[in-house]
Design a protein that fits this description.
Length: 197
C-alpha cells in the first residue's frame, strides 16, 4: 500500500513538473460590429488591453484564461428624433475569455473557448442634419444594455519567441446586447500583440 501511494505522489509531482504556467499582458486592435437578424454590420475600429495566464498541460494542450478591457460597439444609420442620423454605439466590456489551446506546432496554437463579458459603458453618439442644420448628440444606453454578455471565441496564437506572441481571434456574441431590442449581438475581430513573463 505504501508503494502505491508513493507511485501516485510521484505521478502527481511529475505531472506538475511537466505543466508550465506563464503570465502575460496583451494589447490589440479590434474591428467590432453588431450582428443578427435585421442588424446592420457597420464595423467600428476599437481597442483592447488586458492580462492573461497560460497553463500548459503538455506539449500540445493548454488553457488560457484572460481578463481584458475591450472597447466594442458598431455603427448604423437610423431615424433619431425624426432625423436621419449616423449612429455610433460604444458598448465597452470587461471580458473574461477562457481559451482552450491546441498546439499544432511548438510555435502555433489553435484557440477556442467561451467568453463572458461585463458591460461597463454604453452610449450612442449620433450625427444628423435637419433643415440644413447639422446636429450631434449623445444618449446614455446603460440602463437599456444587458449587464452580461456571453460569446464564443475562435482564433490562433503564434509565439514569435518564448515570451512574445501575436494573436488573431473572432468572438461571436450569443446573447442580445440590448434589453427589449430585436436580434442584436456583439461581434469582434481581434488582432493582438502580447508578452509572457
Amino acid at each position: 500500500m505504501k508503494k502505491f501511494f508513493v507511485l501516485i505522489a510521484a505521478a502527481i509531482v511529475s505531472m506538475s513538473a511537466m505543466a508550465q504556467v506563464q503570465f502575460g499582458a496583451k494589447v490589440g486592435v479590434d474591428a467590432t460590429h453588431f450582428w443578427g437578424k435585421d442588424t446592420p454590420h457597420g464595423m467600428q475600429l476599437n481597442y483592447q488591453a488586458g492580462l492573461m495566464m497560460e497553463y500548459k498541460f503538455n506539449s500540445q494542450f493548454a488553457i488560457a484564461p484572460e481578463v481584458v478591457f475591450a472597447a466594442q460597439g458598431g455603427k448604423d444609420t437610423r431615424k433619431v428624433d425624426l432625423v436621419d442620423a449616423d449612429c455610433t454605439f460604444h458598448t465597452n466590456y470587461i471580458n473574461v475569455p477562457v481559451m482552450l489551446k491546441y498546439y499544432v506546432s511548438p510555435a502555433f496554437s489553435i484557440d477556442f473557448g467561451p467568453q463572458v463579458g461585463f458591460n461597463v459603458y454604453s452610449k450612442m453618439t449620433a450625427k444628423g442634419k435637419a433643415s440644413s442644420i447639422e446636429a450631434k448628440w449623445t444618449d446614455d444606453l446603460k440602463d437599456g444594455t444587458k449587464a452580461v454578455d456571453f460569446g464564443l471565441g475562435l482564433g490562433g496564437t503564434y509565439n514569435l519567441t518564448d515570451n512574445a506572441f501575436v494573436q488573431a481571434r473572432y468572438t461571436m456574441g450569443l446573447t442580445n446586447v440590448f434589453k427589449g431590442e430585436g436580434d442584436c449581438k456583439n461581434g469582434n475581430i481581434q488582432i493582438a500583440f502580447g508578452m509572457k513573463f
